[in-house]
Amino acid sequence: MPLKGRNPEDGDLIEIDRGFYKHWCVYVGEGDVVHITGLTEMPDSGFVSSSNGQAKVKREPLEHVVGDCNYWVNNKYDESRPVYSVDKILERANDEVGKIRRYHAFAKNCEHFATEIRYNEAISDQANTAVAVIMVIGFLILFI
Q: Rounded to whole angstroms, how far apart are CA atoms 122 and 107?
């Protein structure tokens, strides 16, 4: 599990490079993260089966969630959005553990979950980019 950059601290957002997509979680200390993952999970992937539209919030060891993938701390909105205190982030993350949440790759994914815990705003750049690409492809198919 190659860490790129600094070691995570409590409340940090962790971005994990899965190749096709990035998996996001919240570092809650003691080597653990809180994240959403499928009710039926591919081993060590965090990949959510979107067929049932649900995901489970889990607290798991970072090394289990990361597997052999590259990962890094990415608190990318700290300069542009209010950030909860570390205590509040940890409380919010741990309060979600065990809950079943709605899941949709473009509207309620792991990045939305993590940013909502840290910033109280569910944001996903990868979902926004995917939607934009789909819209461009659709436009090209219709008009070219």
A: 9
